[in-house]
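Lecture 7, part B: from sequences to assemblies.

Below are the input chains for today's worked example.
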Amino acid sequence: MDIYEPFQQVSMWGDSFKVEGGLNSIASPMLLVNTSMENKSEFIPHEPRDSSGADQETTNKDDSKVLRRLAQNREAARKSRLRKKAYVQQLETSRLKLMQLEIEIGRARKQGMYTGNALDTSFMGSSETINPGVVAFEIEYGNWVEEQHRWNEELRNAFQTNASEVQLHLVVQSVLNHYSDLFRMKADAAKADVLYLISGVWKTSLERLFLWIGGSRPSQLLNLILPQLEPLTDQQIASINKLRLSSQQAEDALSQGLDKLQQSLVQDMAVDPLTAANHGFQMAIALEKFEGLEGFVSQADHLRQQTLIHMSRILSTHQAARGLLALGEYFHRLRTLCSLWTSRPCDSIMSPKITP
Amino acid sequence: MSQEKLMHYQVDPWNCYMMRVRRRRMEEEDEMERVMRIVSESAVVIFSSSSCCMCHAMKSLFCGMGVNTMVHELDQDSKGKQMEKTLMRLLATNSTTLPVVFIGGKLVGSMDTLLAFHVNGSLVQLLKQAGALWL
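Predicted structure of the full complex, as structure tokens:
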């Protein structure tokens, strides 16, 4: 027994050196080899007690195979650990990038509210086809809003510098033309997609609170700018009251017509479930109704424009300029308030309220 | 006799055409007369279609102002199609234009004309003149 032990150890050392030569292993596996071999040497002596020299040789071969397999296993484990480490690092960097992108989107959404709206809502159910008319309108409307801001500045400047009647008149006319541009743009958008226009997704969410057939209520805007126009003559007051009444009556009439259109659309959709034959026919009839929708949007915008024009005729140039400034300022404040609302901190929403 | 028949055949097409033109002109005049007769019967006459929603809006507008109107539903009239064509000719337009309103026997027009008149105050004037509104 004593004779074999040192012999075994020497051969094992030889094998361990072979192992080192075979694989480009670093020091630590070597130490592992040594320790494992030392462990093994405790057991092995029990076997060769009864074996001959030939058995010792095969045991050596087995040992070398075992050693090689163990070393390969170690190597594979090491590579696996390195891969895992790399993957985790990649995940960490992606997570940081994601947080950064989310912040950027929040910022961009705050600033570019009118450009983001249609894209935000279009994913909710509509197909992937992009309507060029809608995209064009989005861009044009964005520019229009910026220009409205510039005209507000122009009007304010004219008041501050005590501009002449003629100059003021020019500015007033330009602003009225600017509104005409908007109505023309809306008419084009209605042809492209009337449902998009009438739903007001192209406006900020706060403006949509006051939506009436794809825009504002003329009578509501009249009431809004009235305080800014004083002092008014008695005749002017009478004319404005008549205008307000006419506008309200027209708004009611158009609302009722639109209600009837909605009802008829619902009736078209409510098919008898047992007769599925006329399905396509019903759909065709319903699609025709969308032309009727275009008509209502057209009349509503027509009403808005006529109200603007008639107001500008009732008022003096100075009063008209004040009224238009009040109107532009109102919309600007609505949009500012809306962006404040959308950029409120998310903590107040996300954190659960702990009730005592 | 066959030659007479031949000559008769050669002259006929022009006569036929002239007769058709004359008949159509007479029909148009008849229709125009019919329309004029209808619009002179009431202070406010609306030519409408029972399924048209803009027509409903126009009826609601006059109703809201307290004005009684005579409504002519063309889709329920046997000569409705021809009357619609006559109205289109009156308005000098190729597209279907219902509703069309006449006040005091005179043509006012479609919804957009009506709204423009209402906003600038001339609608109330017209209605008072026609005796449809008292205030």
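Note for the exam: The first strand of chain B starts at residue 44 and ends at 48. Keep this in mind when comparing with the next example.
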